[in-house]
Amino acid sequence: MKTPTPRPAALTSSLPSKRGRPPKNPPKTLSATGSRVIRTESIHDTLMRGGFPNARSLARDLEADVKTIREDLKWMQFSRGLPIEYDASRKGFYYTRKDVQFSGIDLTEEEMIGLCAAKSALSVFKGTALEPAVFSAFGKLVTDLQKRTSFDLDQIDEYISIGLPARETVGDPALSGLIFHSLMRGRELTFTYRKPEGDTVRVVEPHHLHMEDGVWYIICHDVGASGTRSFRLRRMHDVKLTGRRFVRRGIDWRKELANALGIFSGRNPVEVRVRLLGFAAEYAGGKQWHPSAKFDPVAPDRSVVLTMMLANSKEVERWVFQWADEIEVLSPLPLRAAVLFRARRMCELNHIPEE
């Protein structure tokens, strides 16, 4: 008499008691922590090789407890939809198909598209010492993830693109490399800083590298000025290590820029109110220019009033002038006077002589 082939049973007591029916309390999808990623990918590799491993043998090989392995198997079967079954006669698990693809990193197709869209933002690293490493790491990540989805990531540029501000090149990539070294190892820097009013020699303790509107800046403790300053990388020349180390002072770069519209900060913010007209009202009204920005309800003439708490008037002046004749400074009065002075100066520079 022929012995019947045993039916594939559930994945032990921790898995469904009937084939295809999930447990009453299926495990929640966890974030891709390193331990689960490593374990589940190892379990997948073992199942692909065959051999019918069980929870105890997997726990022994992965140096984990049996309960953890059973939870991993449930997660793989019900959260990731993998065709895992248990063969009672061989006392082990197996894949019911041979063409199983799996990654322990739990990304949806939409998340993968978003990840690839972020590739456009990596262009800010071009011309810096980090360019080769950043693009190499991203390429490896996308190549691995592409094996786990049917979406053609090579065609992502046909569907998604991100326009970034005009990027200022650092100049010599070795400069950014030296600055990264100084930041990571706490090394003091000295350099000549070029400004329209003249060159100065600075000694600084670098704390943070920041890009604002396509321009790289380094936020430092200026030893000579005994305060926090920001320096534009392209204006830094003859950059050298002094040979001295420093202990980080706990400079909070977010706090330093809290009152800034861009990179130039200040300690005493004032309320800035402007009225935007026409195109400026329509365009600016949809952007969060600053965390403190508030828009009044649209007026009957379709103008809007924008209020922000800012500290650096020079930066605000430049922002005002991008809207030309479609903005009115309501307050503070010194800012209104400064804008009027610059407007008159602009008229003088662009005056067309009468024939």
Provide structural commentary.
Helix 1 (34-49) crosses helix 3 (66-79) and helix 2 (55-62) packs across helix 3 (66-79). The radius of gyration is 30 Å and the shape is elongated. A hairpin with a 2-residue loop joins strand 4 and strand 5 (198-212). A 5-stranded antiparallel β-sheet has the order 7-6-5-4-8, with helices on one face. Strands 10-11-9-12 form a 4-stranded antiparallel β-sheet. The protein is built from 10 helices and 12 strands. The longest helix has 17 residues, at 333-349. Helix content is 32%, strand content 22%. It is α+β, with helices and mostly antiparallel strands. It has helices at 34-49, 55-62, 66-79, 109-117, 131-146, 173-185, 253-256, 278-284, 313-321, 333-349, and strands at residues 8-9, 84-87, 92-95, 187-195, 198-212, 215-222, 227-232, 236-245, 270-276, 294-295, 304-310, 327-331. Mean pLDDT is 80; it is low at 1-20 and 22-34.
